[in-house]
Amino acid sequence: MQAAVMRAEHAPLEIEDVKIDRPGPHEVLTRTVASGICHSDLHVIEGGIPMPVPCVLGHEPAGIVEEVGSEVRDFQKGDHVIGCLNAWCGSCEFCLRGQPYLCMPDIIRRPEGEPPRLSRDGESIMPFGGLASFAEYMLTHERALVKIRDDIPLDRAALIGCGVTTGLGAALRTARVEPGSSVAIIGCGGVGLSALQGSRIAGAGRIVAVDNQAWKLELARDMGATDAVDASEGNPVEQVQELLGGGVDYAFECIGLRPTIQQAVAMLKKGGAALLVGVLPGDPDGGAPGRRHHAAGEAGARLVHGLEPLPHRHAALRGLLPRRPAQARRDDLTTDPPRGGQSGARRDAQGRGGALRDRLRALSPRSCLQAGARACQ
């Protein structure tokens, strides 16, 4: 198969012929139909999140099962599935106490001594997040997939695996926003708009969208925001405080920048909670790169990592969200060779906040010939 392979940081992904192994007993081979492009993929390319190379990025996929291992019971050929970044083992302390989203199982990787899932000329290639959706096919552990209905468009379902689940889960599961409470959403991209919709579903009384892109703020209002704050027109903290006559109960930081984390804390009323949903790349305070970092807050404020995701069978699959997902750019993938100019423009657009969520939809067997080239290079 072909895949977009990352061989060095700050370098274009290379479209290569990659060998993919046959499924092991608990593994599933899936044909990639669509893949969202998360900013975390860009963080890896830019060195903000360390990742061994060579690797294949992409962790927001949807596809159709092609083959299953001998011990797989929950999937069969032809099933429509989405990727689950939080694979779970079912036996660790987190799984046994009902927190499988905190599980970091070894099943994501094959045991040492077994042939790699992906390789080229005998060289092992790391599948990012155990998924590697910037490729024509994915070979994953069965617990890294979730079966969905066949009538859900796969190019939209792909977004559920990371962006939608992360934002909705932050509001409904981690914060558990109460009816009538006040909420600030900092960063109205794919994750932020999902947190906004989660807050709306929970019955929040005031939802303040904060961004520096006017078109995103307009879309946020369409999605349920009661107020909008343009951060390019002045101090967003002061604007939120003026709007609310004080702070908010919950502030969701959905970007992953130190200044916006500090703003989230400063927006809180006494006893409020800041949810750090965005991944902060780099190592500003000696912490682990790619982890969410705490920021200094005022007395009475709580800082919460937005780590508890929404179960995939929750609101997004039961009609509580708008039929048309948060506006996302979609590229129909063809066999035309990628152009460097388009690649750089796409990366710049996503880096500047010019795209909510890029999606890649396969129209040919060379599905990820464009995935890395058009979106992440």
Fold topology:
Layout: E1 2-6, E2 14-17, E3 19-20, E4 27-37, H1 39-45, E5 55-56, E6 61-68, E7 80-83, H2 93-96, E8 118-120, E9 123-127, E10 137-141, E11 145-147, H3 154-157, H4 163-175, E12 182-186, H5 190-202, E13 206-211, H6 214-223, E14 227-230, H7 236-244, E15 248-253, H8 258-266, E16 268-276, E17 302-305, E18 329-333, H9 340-351, E19 358-362, H10 371-375
Parallel strand pairs: 5-9, 12-13, 12-15, 13-14, 15-16, 16-17, 18-19
Antiparallel strand pairs: 1-2, 1-5, 3-8, 4-6, 4-10, 4-19, 6-7, 7-11, 8-9
Write a compact overview of the structure shown.
The protein is of the alpha/beta class and 377 residues long. The chain is built from 10 helices and 19 strands. It is elongated, with a radius of gyration of 20 Å.
Structural description of this entry:
23% of the residues lie in helices and 25% in strands. It has helices at 39-45, 93-96, 154-157, 163-175, 190-202, 214-223, 236-244, 258-266, 340-351, 371-375, and strands at 2-6, 14-17, 19-20, 27-37, 55-56, 61-68, 80-83, 118-120, 123-127, 137-141, 145-147, 182-186, 206-211, 227-230, 248-253, 268-276, 302-305, 329-333, 358-362. The protein is α/β, with parallel strands linked by helices. The protein has two domains: 2-148 and 314-375, Quinone Oxidoreductase, Chain A, domain 1, CATH 3.90.180; 166-305, NAD(P)-binding Rossmann-like Domain (Rossmann fold). The radius of gyration is 20 Å and the shape is elongated. Strands 4, 6, 7, 10, 11, 18 and 19 form a seven-stranded mixed sheet that branches. A six-stranded mixed sheet has the order 2-1-5-9-8-3. Strands 14-13-12-15-16-17 form a six-stranded parallel sheet, sandwiched between helices.
